[in-house]
Amino acid sequence: MPQVELVAELPGHTDRVWSISWHPTLLLFASCSGDKSVRIWKKDDNGTAWNCVSVLDDAHKRTIRSCAFSADGKFLATASFDASTAVWERMEDGEWECVATLEGHENEVKCVAWSASGALLSTCSRDKSVWVWEVIGDGDFECLSVLQEHEQDVKMVQWHPNEELIASASYDDTIKIWREDDDDWYCSDTLKGHTSTVWGIDFDASGNHLVSVSDDRSVKIWERTNVPNTGNAFSFRNDPKWQCISTLSDCHSRTIYAVSWSKIHGCIATAGADCTVQLIQKTPNGFEVTATLPNPHGTADVNCVRWCPLESHSNLLATAGDDNTVRIWRCL
Which of 34, 59, 119, 191 sits a CA distance of 20 to 30 A from 77? Predict the structure, then answer.
């Protein structure tokens, strides 16, 4: 059973911390908060302490709910309750400059995510829509599609690790899979099984499995099969279907808000309102909880959990909570 130790406790935000995004190639990460700021954290030159090296606080007027680095690490996108998404570019001096503001959602933007190629960006909102943006260059972005098939607030969007495919999670208790066909984005499958809001989703390294967490306190593992989705008798597309292959219904006692599936070692981390982080691994008996981190943020809810994507530091896990702090953990 893995052991977990605290590496660093990082205060600085003055309101709850909502989300974390690790840089894809450097040992640094971004955190965003209800204090309308993003903080960039990096290890010092001695490699012993984590320090805040930048504060980005001049782009949004309300809570920043989500942040995401692009695949090459040159850009950082931030989504806010002010209904806008900002895109920041890292300059040669290491500072971050806001180069674009994307507008169009009717109200709070809940999540932002980059495609693996870095050519596309996706946002989702309380307005029940998912938007797909194309990176034109020089700070220009074009909206390619507005996807409006969810019946309620869309909580999260996640890109497939190597395909131009999007998964979205919603207050309508479903997950939708979106694909592109000749510049036309469409819903290729709707994953039903949760009985309450789906808060978080993540793909495994292959992209053939998806994990979801919900207000119904369950963790579900979905698998992509080659069986055509024949739910629509008039469908002309032969799309793969996603099927639930495992449900863990007892690993959290309250709402599960966040999930992260390591692309390096395959461990799943979940976090939520019961003030715990659970580590889930595939065993000969199926997916099982193999370690529990109790009270990582004291009595505060844990809003986000993220594995470091660097192979050399893949045992690092970052958490963010309602106690205004970020903590870094090492799994042994």
Answer: 191
